[in-house]
Amino acid sequence: MERMSIAAREALSRARDEAVRWNHDHTGPEHVLLALAWPNPPILAALGLTCDSICAAVEAVAPRLPGPPIEVPQHPRVKATIDRAIAEARRLGDEELGLEHLLLGMLAETDSPAAKALIKLGINAGRLQPLFGSRLAPRPPVIPTTLPAEFAPLDEVIAEIGEATITAAGSQDHERAAWLRDLEAKLRIVRKRLVV
User: Fold this and answer.
1) Whole-model pTM?
2) Closest CA to 118 of 180, 182, 184, 32
3) Closest Cα partner for 186 from 163, 164, 154?
4) What distance in Å separates the CA atoms of residue 152 and residue 139, rounded to the nearest whole number?
5) In angstroms, what CA-CA distances link 33 with 41, 56, 61, 63, 175?
6) Which pLDDT tens digit goes with each residue over 23-56?
7) Pairwise CA distance, residues 61 & 72, whole Å
8) How far, in Å, CA of 99 to CA of 51, rounded?
9) How high does pLDDT run on average in the chain?
10) Architecture of domain 1-133 in CATH?
């Protein structure tokens, strides 16, 4: 996705600064969440979240560490979070990646500190529904395919598993969400091998 809202772009660029400020040795989705919290955008206020509440929730799952880190590389979960956010934006027919899509992407990475912090704050896909209206309701995904016709249903299965992952994460069924995420990853590998 080429278009990203200014707020989303700024949050992603500030995430490394948050990791340094918290003395963490990597930049993860939790740092993107911390970066989203400032300057307390309306989208978070609509969810009843404040900068302080987000900091407290992140502190509970990924406490500040003593001493500054030597290096702060980006954790692969940040890319996974962004990829899921882009997939959600496309699925919803949105032309721009926004903070709300990043929140959905964070929730989908169920074992990340960001997802745990959001869940601790009572945020799940259901709580995000007002931000999207009826668009967040499941609908048939539009997935371009170059698979042979007999394998096209695989894309539908992968999309349904992605939806089920978000639902499981939203209902705090972390074990099921992790299992579904692993299954989706395995099916994507199979799909990649089948592409013509």
Assistant:
1) 0.65
2) 32
3) 154
4) 17
5) 12, 12, 13, 14, 22
6) 998 999 999 999 988 777 888 888 889 999 999 9
7) 19
8) 15
9) 82
10) Orthogonal Bundle (1.10)
Beta bridge partners of 4: 97
Angle between helix 76-91 and 153-170 (nearest 10):
110
Per DSSP, the three-state class of 97 is strand
> How far does CA 43 lie from the centroid of its chain?
15
Least Cα distance to 110 among 83, 137, 77, 155 occurs for 77
The residues spanned by each domain of the chain are: 1-133, 138-196
Q: What is the DSSP letter of 70?
A: S
Number of residues written out for the chain: 196
- Residue 13 β-bridge partners: none
Q: Map tokens 């259901």 to a residue.
A: 126
Average pLDDT over residues 72-83: 90
Bridge partners (DSSP) of residue 74 are 27
Cα-atom radius of gyration of the chain, to the nearest Å?
17
Rounded Cα gap, residues 24 and 62, in angstroms: 9
* Sequence-separated (6 or more) residues with CB below 8 Å from residue 162: 84, 87, 108, 141, 184
In this structure, is the dihedral angle defined by the CA atoms of residues 153, 188, 161 and 102, taken in order, positive or negative? negative
> How far is residue 152's CA from residue 160's CA, in Å, rounded to a whole number?
13
DSSP 149: G
| Residue 14 vs residues 44, 59, 109: alpha-carbon distances, Å | 17, 18, 20
